[in-house]
Thioredoxin
Amino acid sequence: MTVDAYSDSPERSIDEPIHIDGKRHLDEIVDEHDVVLVDFFATWCGPCQMLEPVLDGLAAETDAVIAKVDVDEHQQLAGAYGVRGVPTLALFANGEQAERYTGALPADRLRDLIEGYTE
């Protein structure tokens, strides 16, 4: 099931990752939610596939919104954010990019990162 982020209110928790369909959509998600972790991924990427269940769990367990951007489908968007390798994780807090990591991070590290901005 894909969440229709256009109809979600900022106060409502989103318990699963949102698949981004373009720059406008990503901008809206970042503007509407306090903390957003964006996963720039590729379907063919092994580490991206390993990270997927971790991100699914974080979407359900934390107050952050998890957004997923397929870099093959959205090459210009990935380029605009300087993505040169996948997975790249960008954390936005209060509408601004606060953190950025390339490579798969363990669940506890990602949880601590998110909680640092949601508390």
